[in-house]
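README, section 4: Worked example with a bound small molecule

Sections 1 through 3 covered apo chains. Here we extend the same pipeline to holo records, where the ligand is supplied as SMILES alongside the sequence. The molecule in this example is zinc ion. Nothing else about the input changes; the structure line simply encodes the ligand pose together with the chain.
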Amino acid sequence: MTTIKAPNLCIRPGCNFPRRPDTRANSRYRFRLDCSAECSVWALRAKWADRNDDKAEAAELMRLLALLDARRSPRDRVTDVFARGENAA
Ligand SMILES: [Zn+2]
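The generated complex, written as structure tokens:
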């Protein structure tokens, strides 16, 4: 059986930050799938936008993607990711 050595990078496409260590007790995994809460939420919203064919959400996600890509560190906060689009206006 061969072991595929996947690069230990964040789940979000385009994100080059390393995954954060999984600090949950009794976890079978050493690392989570994402580098930060922002990427975790973004990936989740992207999944639902795709599933619901939500064009407005998709556009908002593209805007947030630019903000996420502009981060210098996974600890930089992008609070817009956690806000729902309809509350913005
Ligand atoms: Zn990330």
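What to look for in the output: Residues 67 and 78 are 7 Å apart (CA to CA). The mean pLDDT is 88.

Section 5 describes how to batch many such records.
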